[in-house]
Amino acid sequence: MSDSADYVCEVITNGFPPVKSEKATLVVKEQLKFVPPPVSTRLELGSYTKIYCKARGSTQPVVRWMKVGHPFFDWPSHIQDDNGTLFFKGVTNEDAGKYTCIATSSQGIINTTINVDVVVMPKFVIEPVDTQAYEGYSTMLHCQASGDPMPAVQWDKNNVMDNFDQKRFHVMENGTLYVSEVHMEDEGKYGCTVGNSGGFKRAEVNLNV
Question: Is the pLDDT of residue 165 over 60?
Answer without folding.
Answer: yes
